[in-house]
Each structure stands twice: as C-alpha cells, then as structure tokens.
Design goal:
The chain is of the alpha/beta class and 283 residues long. It is built from ten helices and eleven strands. The longest helix has 21 residues. 43% of the residues are buried. Bound molecules: guanine.
Amino acid sequence: MPATILQGKEVAKSIRAELAEEVAGLKQQGITPGLTVILVGEDPASHSYVRGKSKGCEEVGIHSEVILKDAATTQEELLEIIQQLNQNPNVNGILVQLPLPSHISEEAVLDAIDPSKDVDGFHPINVGNMVIGKETLLPCTPHGVIELIKRTGTEIAGKHAVVIGRSNIVGKPVSLLLQRENATVTMCHSRTKDLPSFTKMADILVVAAGKAHMIGKEHVKPGAVVIDVGVNRNEAGKLVGDVKFDEVQETASYLTPVPGGVGPMTITMLLKNTVEAAKQQAK
Ligand code: GUN
C-alpha cells in the first residue's frame, strides 16, 4: 500500500487554529503576543520568508513588526536595535533573519538576543536547556518535525530513528528531541559509510542532508515514517526534497512532500514559540 502523504500544510492549519483561539483568550487578559523580525539586506528568499512570518502572525492575532535595514548596516547598529527590543515589554519574540551580510557575526547577534525572547531557539542558553531536557523555546524546524511525526499517531518511544545530517539548526536538534521522546537514535552524515545499512533499520527516518533525491527505496524499510527536511532546486528550478518521493512512497507508511511537508510547520512553530514567550513573560 502506498504511503499516506503527511500534509504539513493541513497540520499547520489546525495548529494555527488552536493558536488563534489561545491568542484570543490572552487578549482578553490584556496580553497581545508581539514578534519583531529584523531583516538586513535585500536577499529575495529572506524577504519572502519574512512575508510568510508576518502573514502567519496576522492569521493567529500576533502583533508583528518588521525592521528592515540595508546591507551596509553595521554590527554595532544591529546590536543596539536588539538591546532596545530586549528592553521593550511589548516585544515578546525577536527573530533576526539569517543569513546576515558577511561583515556581521551571526554568533554575536544571536548571543545578544534575550534568551526568553529567542523564538528561533538558537541562543546557546536555549540550546543548552534543550540538551539537558529543560523546558525551553525549541528551534522551529526540529520542533515541527516532531509534531508532524506525533500527528501520524506513531508512538516514538522505543522506535529506532535514523537522522541524516548533523547541522546545528536541524540534524543535531532533531536527534536530541527524538531521544527526549525515548527513541533510539542513530545519526548519519556525509562521512557515514554504507548509509543504507543504517537507514534500512529506521522505523522513523528524518532526512536533512541538503542533497537532492539522495534517498531512494533501497534506503527505506517497508512501513517506515519518512520525514524529508530537504529543500533543493533541481535543474529546472523546481523545489525538490532529499527523498525520491515517487519511489519511497511505495515503501514508506508515511511520507512528507516537498514543498508542503515540513516547511509550513516551521513558521507555525515560530508562532507557537511567540505565544509561549508572551505567556512566560506575563508570569
Ligand atoms: N533563515 C532561514 N531559515 C531561518 C530560520 O529558521 N530562522 C532564521 N532566523 N533565519 C532563517
């Protein structure tokens, strides 16, 4: 039987509906969650992502502002803006869109954000809290991956999960969150030898390698849940994942499409983090 397609768009829609209700309740208590996004430079993809974030905020009732700065902005100017936002009680979440121009240190900028307003979950304090299993703001894409797996009804505890890719923003945090859900986790990466011997053991396979169509049916155990985090452009300029969708659809029990799988979950988890940050700051 072919895989059930895991429509992230649909899951995202239902989580956003839940969030809209929660925000309406918070507003009755005088709390309006607020997100400020800082965008430096003219990268069209970044502008498009930021528009998506603003639209998402509007949909659930979060107040959002975008601070646009030109590519010549200095690191000092950016740090000054972040300090002001850290002190502004109306701003519950701060997100600096990446990548930044090369003269600005991403590390210095991300470290400057108040961890309680770090809705990306990229601040070392939040990363550390995640590692030790403390309640904290979780990074959006990894959190979205876990939510998608849960919404299939799959019990994660005791399953063998294989994660391909070890980036700081996807592979590493996804493996930690799966461990936290009591999966047995194997990490694979570009230097792994005999990849299929590992992936064939996976009940849950998360692919975040950033290499178009690298996973075919020879990699997948029949009945596995396959989550494709890859976003690549093929020769025709079309968005494709890391998984050969048509092939793997024949073997997997659940499979995410690209686009429309993990992508819509990322912004939704940002909205969830902003609401969470507002609630925590109101305490
Ligand atoms: N650029 C691409 N994805 C992201 C993200 O998740 N957060 C931020 N801040 N910038 C990005």
